[in-house]
Amino acid sequence: MATEDERYKQSSQFRLWSFSPANLQELRHKTNALAKQLILPRLNPVPEFLTSEEETRLVKFFTVELIRAAQFCELPTEIRSTAAIFLRRFYVTNSVMTYPPTELLKTSLFFGCKAEGFYIRLARLAEKFPNTTSDQILAGEYLLCQGIRFAFDVRHPFRPLEGAILELRKRCPDEETRINNAHARAREILKFSALVTDVYFHYTPSQIMMASLLMVDAGLVDILLSDKPAKNGAENDAKNGAGNGAGHGDDQSNGAYAKARERIMTTLESCRAMLEDEPPERMSEYWGTPEIVKSMKPLRKKLQKCRDPDRADLVELQRARREQANTKPTLQKPTSHDLALGKVDHTRSKRQKTAGAADDVFGPSLG
After folding, report:
1. End-to-end Cα separation, the chain, in angstroms
2. From CA 50, how far away is CA 196, in angstroms rounded?
3. Which pTM was predicted?
4. CA-CA distance, 116 to 78, in Å (whole number)?
5. Alpha-carbon distance 19 to 207, whole Å?
6. What is the dotted CATH code of the domain comprising 157-230+261-286?
């Protein structure tokens, strides 16, 4: 039976959306450079473009706005978390200068509901936002799916947290209040800090969960990591009279455990440091203050001047693409006169028919 780690490594989250910090930074720089290259010929005069760091800051700002919008719409925690990760994934390989984040934010919320199986009427969601129509929300849906590489499965750390809390309650029945307080605080961290930082790109859900507990109560993490490997081999040796080898095996086991624990704690500490950059209090004490809104205005004005004019209106972009698809030239059918005179290339006609069948949604004929 596959272990939890093996199952996670088969997920799209690990295969497509896990990066080292250096790789993620490089990818964002490439996205920024490519966007500048594509937008430059379309703007006159040439404006000052956003840097990669400024784009990252804007994405964080709009992620906070998405969380705030999800709370206003009274969407469950799983929905807002999935929507936030969709938005952050999209802007790893797409620039905020190319596609408007104010529109993709709403699309991410609606598609997050779909991905998590949570039904909400599109018109009802559109009513929650001023000057927003259903068409505006739907216009960016396929773009979003492409941007996240059709990876709709998002593994969150909430379920691992519940499992850890159950284990702690079993091991420490007299510490109910302490565990409950840690549980509540860790959930707050996971509902905000984990979503506005890059931890989902660098760590597994279980590592993120343990790092959040480490922020709250390091002693509880020690309890969860206190299990040592079984010593069945040493016990059997002792029963069989091979006491001399038992001590050596026990030392090896303890050494391996110590190394593994050190490696785990190093990972958890680095994840913890990233989470501590955005504690839950910053939702209201920093991102919700008039000062930060005012400080973001220059960046948003800069974005308005350097965004792609051909992709600023997603509804119009979708309409233009549909018209382009509908106006593709169609092959004229041969007339009976052409058939009689042998003016039809049967080989080419058959090849085109076969190619068309291969492109059919249901595949070519079985005959």
Report:
1. 42
2. 20
3. 0.83
4. 7
5. 15
6. 1.10.472.10
